[in-house]
Amino acid sequence: MTLVKICGIRTLAEARAATRSGADLLGFVFSPHSRRTVTAAAAARIIRQAREESAGWSAVGVFVDPTPDEVVEIARVCALDVVQLAGSESPACVRAMPLPVLKTIHVRAGDEPRAAETVETDAAGAHLYLLDTHVPGTHGGTGRQFDWQALRTIGPRCLVAGGLRPDNVGAALAALSPRGVDVSSGVEHAGGGKNPQLIRAFLERVKAYDRHIHP
User: Fold this and answer.
1) Band of residue 170 on the pLDDT scale cut at 50, 70, 90
2) Which of 31, 74, 104, 204 has the largest count of CB atoms under 10 Å?
3) Is 158 annotated in the active site?
4) Contact indicator for 63, 70 with CB cutoff of 8 Å
């Protein structure tokens, strides 16, 4: 079945909306440059309470070019399950992480073969890869798509992000057959903050696809 990650969780209400809709992964952003950043203390409270209320999901800490010590401390405080590295981290940095690593690949238009090679050769030594759209000056959460067809051969080895919404996630799944999907801006209110109705709609579309593929 397709994994679903709801990223950019900042409140307990958002975490509840995600877990109650059936999300597998909740992403907490620790990069200070993101408008969705959350402190370790706040994330720890949300994760602890959400785990008391529901099981069957994993907490993902999203970092951009962190030091290993920084990740170790935040992973300890928050009881993270997975580390997502969304910057230009080296394979050595990936190896130094204390938990399984989801490594983001920022897909540049016209440079899709390089992204495919990174995944096919496991160049970063990651547990899984996440395909997102390259947008200068950002590290994700932009709501922009990359060329799905250009990377359909590696979809099963990856989570896919970049411009996904309830109305297009089915098409992305059909094109890429990914291991999972990752959404942030596509399930938010216009002014920011997660929209429970959009989260529920997104999960319903993914589940409908899975039922169609695995009746």
Assistant:
1) very high
2) 104
3) no
4) yes
Is 69 assigned a catalytic role?
no
Marked catalytic residue, from 7, 78, 93, 158: 7
On whether the CB atoms of residues 127 and 101 are closer than 8 A, the answer is yes
Domain range annotation of the chain:
3-213
DSSP one-letter string for 75-132: HHHHT-SEEEE-S---HHHHHT-SS-EEEEEEEPTT-HHHHHHHHHTTTT--SEEEEE
CA–CA separation, 105 vs 126, rounded Å? 11
Query: Please, what is the Cα angle at 182 between 34 and 184, to 5 degrees?
Result: 40
C-alpha pair distances (Å), 135 with each of 126, 143, 146 = 22, 10, 10
**pTM, full prediction:** 0.93
C-alpha closest to that of 128 among 214, 5, 43? 5
Tens-place pLDDT, residues 190-207: 988 999 999 999 999 999
Catalytic residue among 24, 78, 93, 132: 132
Query: In the block, which residue shows the tokens 């947008």?
Result: 135
Chain position carrying tokens 């929209």:
195
CATH number of 3-213: 3.20.20.70
Question: Cα–Cα distance between 67 and 89 in angstroms, integer?
Answer: 10
The C-alpha atoms of residue 117 and residue 129 are separated, in whole angstroms, by 12
Write the CB contacts of 48 (distance below 8 Å, at least 6 apart in sequence): 79
